[in-house]
Amino acid sequence: MNKNAAMAVTIIAILALPILASLFANSLQPVLSNPMIPVPGSPSTTSTSGITSAESYNWAGYAVVTSGTNKVTDVKGSWTVPAATATCNANQEWDSSFWVGIDGYKSSTVEQTGTDTYCYEGTVSYYAWYEFYPAASITITTHTVSPGDSMSAEVKWISSLSTFKLSIKDITAGWAFSTTGSVSVAKRNSAEWIAESPFDILGELPLTPFGTAYFTSDTAATTTHTGAIGTFAAGVYVINGVCFPSKLPVKLSTSGLDVTGANFNVENLNPGPEG
């Protein structure tokens, strides 16, 4: 099997469960959120600060990756809901997703919650969602989201109950939502703060143009350490999103962490909706 064929098989395998689940979902919205689809040969370089650079076909942002018995127990983050910066026309479908979660960097299990900036046939919609592997994402229909809203979210492992608690809050609108779920096969080996190019049943959607997404107050906890992204001594990855399959151009560029180690941004480098 040649390299391109092997990559195609890998991507199909990674996406199979959420895509199949989406066939039974009552929604015109895309499947969220898929595990990271890594670029072959990535990660490649490690900076003097100990942060490793990685490339992905669908993710951009940061991940803290653990090993052995060191498990992720909590992840928190905040962001401002990015507005679409281009007109959504008829016969178009674009999407950009922003979330925090546990798992997905090197495992198929995902426990995540976030917001989407979504264009479908002339209408841009903004909504919040959550997801427990292996089911498709669930749109939170009881609350509304608007561009510019300040969001905060948390995914927490409750060891006494062997469950995850997902919480998301719209600070601007004044609402909060939480839910719990069990994922018996969860690896709990990574925490993430991500801007994503989602997929639907036909494949990767073009990104909704959004300018820059700002992530703040980003912290995680494992069985051995609690703190901002930049305080983890090892296993920190900065992820840039690239186009499939050429890797060029870079579509989502992730900044360095600020001096607190808890804040960064992801810039959409494409002036229009691109895959």
Core attributes:
18 strands, 1 helix, single chain, 275 residues, 16-stranded mixed sheet, 7% helix
Walk me through this protein's architecture.
With 275 residues, this protein is mainly beta. The protein has a single domain, classed as Peptidase G1 (Jelly Rolls, Sandwich). The chain is built from one helix and 18 strands. The strands form two sheets. It has a 16-stranded mixed β-sheet that branches. A two-stranded antiparallel ribbon has the order 12-13. Strand 5 and strand 6 form a beta hairpin. The protein is globular.
Average pLDDT reading: 87
Q: Could you say what the CATH topology is called? A: Jelly Rolls
How large, in whole angstroms, is the Cα Rg? 17 Å
- The CATH superfamily turns out to be Peptidase G1
CATH class: Mainly Beta
Instruction: Report the structural category.
Output: mainly beta
Number of strands: 18
- Biggest sheet character: 16 strands, mixed
* Terminus-to-terminus distance: 26 Å
Number of structural domains: 1
Helix content: under 10%
- In terms of per-residue confidence, which ranges show pLDDT below 50 for 5 or more consecutive residues? 3-27
Number of helices: 1
Order of helices and strands: HEEEEEEEEEEEEEEEEEE
Compile the SSE list and pairings.
Elements: H1 3-22, E1 52-56, E2 59-65, E3 72-80, E4 93-102, E5 111-120, E6 123-132, E7 138-139, E8 150-158, E9 163-170, E10 175-181, E11 190-196, E12 199-200, E13 203-204, E14 212-222, E15 226-228, E16 236-242, E17 250-254, E18 264-268
Parallel strand pairs: 1-16
Antiparallel strand pairs: 2-11, 2-16, 3-8, 3-14, 4-5, 4-11, 5-6, 6-7, 8-9, 9-10, 12-13, 14-15, 14-18, 16-17, 17-18
